[in-house]
Amino acid sequence: MVDELPEPSFCLARTELDDEEEIERVFKFLLAHEASAAAPAAQRRSPADLTAIGAAIGAIDAAIARGKIGIEKEKAFHSEF
């Protein structure tokens, strides 16, 4: 059990995303952390999970094809897995 949480080392404020270097830093952060979280999930996936993943990616692609950003579909994808 954790008695004390460490100080946060990363904090994202909406105003920070006006800076191109900050956007790149956030992108690199997300790539590193999403990849490390995805590896164990990929090892535990089931055939049903693969079907759900394919459907979620299809929904994101369809939103983008309609000229939408697909943020809601992206959130749904990540909350599902």
Helix content: 55-70%
Strand count, sense and closure of the main sheet? Answer: none
Main structural class:
mainly alpha
Low-confidence runs? none
Number of strands: 0
The overall average pLDDT, rounded, is 77
Keywords:
81 residues, mainly alpha, 0% strand
At a glance:
By secondary structure, the protein is an all-alpha fold. It has three helices and no strands.
Describe this entry's structure for a reader.
With 81 residues, the chain is mainly alpha-helical. The chain has three helices and no strands. It has helices at 20-44, 47-65, 71-80. Helix 2 runs antiparallel to helix 3 (71-80). The mean pLDDT is 77.
Secondary-structure topology with pairs:
Blueprint lengths: L19 H25 L2 H19 L5 H10 L1
